[in-house]
Design brief:
By secondary structure, this protein is mainly alpha-helical. The chain has three helices and no strands.
Length: about 100
């Protein structure tokens, strides 16, 4: 398991703080570049190959597509997963 040193931790922490500050100022703020930089640092931390990175990103993209397709039908606000009493109304798959 990879463990980030203090410098790596600080870089990631600073990026997260930038994202949170941007979203606080403007909830619709585009933080894609900051997100991608965090991704890059994590990939580097785990010494992922280009093939492994492609696999991770494909999985994340597929999950995002599934979330966009099914989550709007769910009335639960907790991670868009359905509470047992809402289950009949919800079509969100169990991931």
């Amino acid at each position: 398991m990879a463990i980030a040193d203090k410098s790596e931790q600080r870089k990631i922490s600073d990026l997260v703080k930038q994202i949170l500050a941007a979203k606080k100022r403007t909830p619709e703020a585009d933080t894609t570049a900051l997100d991608r930089e965090i991704d890059r640092l994590v990939y580097q931390l785990y010494d992922l190959t280009p093939e492994e990175i492609a696999f991770v990103e494909a999985f994340v993209n597929l999950r995002a597509i599934m979330y966009q397709q099914f989550a709007p039908n769910c009335t639960s606000s907790l991670h868009r997963k359905c509470a047992s009493d809402l289950q009949p109304k919800c079509t969100t798959p169990s991931w």
